[in-house]
Write a structure and sequence with these properties.
Layout (H helix, E strand, L loop, with lengths): L5 H9 L11 H4 L5 E6 H8 L2 H11 L5 E7 L3 E25 L3 E21 L8 E15 L2 E5 L2 E5 L3 E12 L6 H46 L4 E4 L2 E7 L3 E6 L2 E4 L2 E2 L18 E6 H13 L4 E5 H7 L10 H9 L3 E7 L4 E5 L2 E14 L7 E16 L2 E18 L9 H33 L6 E10 L2 E9 L2 H12 L1
Antiparallel strand pairs: 1-11, 1-14, 2-3, 3-4, 4-5, 5-8, 6-7, 9-12, 10-11, 12-13, 14-22, 15-16, 16-18, 17-18, 18-19, 19-20, 21-22
Bound molecules: 2-acetamido-2-deoxy-beta-D-glucopyranose (NAG) (7 copies).
Length: 499
């Protein structure tokens, strides 16, 4: 069974995708919202613990440009000087704190960044001077506090962060000139110049670098999103329906979740989302509407994604399951005596899904053919209507789908042999029971494996997810969890992207 459509489901874990319109009023936008993600204060605490790593990377990867200046000196004439090869050493970062400001943004303060800047100053005298003649190395010990007030906004249909409100306070800046053999007036001049310049250069470059790292992170997320956004002819527009909302306790973003199949987009304009449907005690919430899932399943069906072939030993093995009805003789022969039995199953009507507090109800029609070797007509063909309630859970880094209740109705069944095309009641009972006890569990287990694999492909297994819950509600599903952000993930990300 190819379940690439499931890719789309996973988007919500990662994405702020691209699209266009963006409503100003969230309440108005709820109607157009197919998926919501809510990150609460405790989650931001965990993410903030990693802020210092990002800041460290920002300092280390900032490029400090060379700076030149000149000044007129009494008796001497013009003094030309330049600062170059500014490098940072022995960086250490104290701590980082943050606050959520309702309706405004986030404020972050990184205190006690200490670093040693090393560089070389070149200078020369004379109004005619073109080339600089002397140089001295210097070191500056510094202690800096850094403040960033990122604003989240809705830019070009995606959540964007503006980190331009960024400031640095220097608590300490002490200069050591190497050798210290320069005349005092020159030292004084350089001290003023270097300290002023270093402040300016460092402030400009660090804030720029933080913005860059933020953008790289966003692009990284977006890139991954785009990778699964397009899968053949199916994609999902998860652009934002409104600007994200910040309250004292959470950050929430609203996404459209429109499946697009062969350029035809689904429409969501009557979504039942309301913020009261989510609580605030877990770290991370996803709210997913049936209105996203149905068009996605429809597209997958039309794209012939719901197909499964089982053959040979795997098929014989499946039919060792104990059933209360007796296996018809032709079936037993097919499994045991034909060289290569094969069962082909596919969805033959658009599946329909409705979530309620009992679970997710899925209805659809499945068709199947049993081939008993050879290329000819199938020995048996049948079609069954399936109506089942499924509950979803995630544990031990695996997705579990449980069939809570199912009803199967065999719509039609026939043998290809001309003399006896119709099945008797016992044979129909056998098919019904086999679909229920063998078919459904098999299909669900294929789904489980497939969804788990796709989640793993996106690196979900790398996260420490604690007590995840999937809560079916009327017309939507809430997925809530706590998580840990493994240190090595961020380190790895920064290493790969900044090099
Ligand atoms: C960095 O720290 C180490 C160990 O504390 C010290 O030996 C070294 O001189 C420092 N480097 C600078 C440039 O201050
Ligand atoms: C700042 O960092 C330095 C060096 O890591 C440390 O000695 C000092 O105690 C810190 N000060 C504060 C206020 O955290
Ligand atoms: C779908 O959209 C793409 C890109 O906009 C376009 O190249 C293609 O012709 C469209 N296909 C159909 C069937 O409209
Ligand atoms: C929602 O969209 C459909 C299809 O475009 C349209 O027929 C319907 O009137 C819309 N409903 C509302 C409430 O806007
Ligand atoms: C199942 O087998 C049929 C016949 O060989 C083939 O056409 C079809 O593509 C197969 N489907 C899958 C999902 O492998
Ligand atoms: C099937 O049922 C028989 C008799 O009830 C029992 O002996 C056997 O262990 C069962 N097999 C399985 C795989 O459950
Ligand atoms: C087998 C199973 O999971 N049964 C559950 C089906 O759903 C009802 C209602 O939620 C539960 O009470 C059953 O335990």
């Amino acid at each position: 069974m190819s379940l690439d459509v499931v890719h789309s489901l996973l988007l919500f874990l990662f994405v702020f995708g691209a699209s266009h319109a963006c409503l100003q009023d969230p309440a108005e936008a709820y109607r157009f919202t197919g998926a919501v993600s809510r990150l609460t204060y405790p989650a931001v605490v965990v993410l903030n613990e990693k802020t210092t790593k990002v800041i460290e990377a920002a300092f280390q990867h900032a490029r400090y440009p060379s700076v030149k200046g000149e000044t007129s000196l009494f008796l001497i004439g013009t003094l030309i000087y330049g600062l170059e090869n500014l490098e940072i050493h022995n960086l250490s970062i104290g701590q980082s704190t943050f606050e959520l400001h309702p309706g405004e943004g986030i404020s972050m303060e990184i205190t006690n960044v200490s670093a040693v800047f090393k560089g070389r100053i070149q200078y020369g005298y004379g109004s005619w001077l073109v080339s600089v003649e002397h140089s001295i190395d210097f070191e500056i010990e510094s202690q800096i506090d850094l403040g960033i007030n990122p604003k989240l906004y809705c830019g070009e249909g995606k959540v964007a962060a503006d980190t331009s409100d960024c400031f640095l306070n220097f608590h300490k800046l002490s200069l050591h000139l190497q050798g210290d053999k320069e005349p005092n007036w020159l030292k004084k001049l350089f001290t003023d110049f270097i300290i002023f310049t270093v402040k300016l250069v460092v402030k400009g470059q660090i804030c720029k670098e933080i913005n860059k790292v933020a953008n790289i992170l966003a692009d990284f997320i977006q890139e991954r999103a785009e990778q699964f956004l397009s899968d053949g002819d199916i994609s999902v527009d998860i652009g934002v329906a409104a600007a994200p909302v910040i309250t004292a306790n959470y950050i929430e973003s609203y996404h459209k979740g429109l499946s697009i199949y062969k350029n035809v987009s689904a429409v969501i304009n009557e979504s039942v989302f309301h913020p009261s449907q989510l609580t605030e005690h877990k770290m991370l919430y996803f709210w997913i509407s049936d209105q996203i899932l149905n068009p996605m399943f429809t597209a997958a069906h039309h794209d012939a994604r719901f197909q499964l072939n089982i053959s040979g030993a795997e098929l014989s093995e499946l039919f060792k399951t104990n059933l209360s009805s007796i296996m018809p003789e032709y079936f037993r022969k097919c499994l045991l005596e034909s060289g290569s039995p094969q069962l082909r199953v596919w969805s033959s009507s658009v599946p329909y899904l409705h979530t309620s507090t009992l679970g997710t109800n899925v209805r659809g029609t499945a068709s199947a053919q049993l081939h008993c070797g050879g290329a000819g007509a199938p020995t048996l063909s049948f079609q069954a209507e399936v109506d089942m309630d499924i509950t979803v859970s995630y544990a031990d880094k695996k997705v579990f789908l449980q069939n809570n209740r199912s009803e199967i109705y065999v719509l039609q069944a026939e043998f290809s042999s001309q003399n006896q095309p119709h099945l008797d009641q016992a044979q129909l009972d056998f098919i019904r029971e086999a679909v229920e006890k063998i078919g459904i569990p098999k299909v669900l287990s294929v789904f489980e494996t497939e969804v788990t694999r796709l989640l793993d492909e996106q690196g979900t297994y790398l996260f420490d997810i604690f007590s995840p819950e999937v809560l079916p509600q009327e017309g939507f599903t809430v997925i809530q969890m706590d998580f840990g952000f493994p240190h090595h993930l961020l380190v790895e990300f920064l290493r790969r992207t900044l090099q």
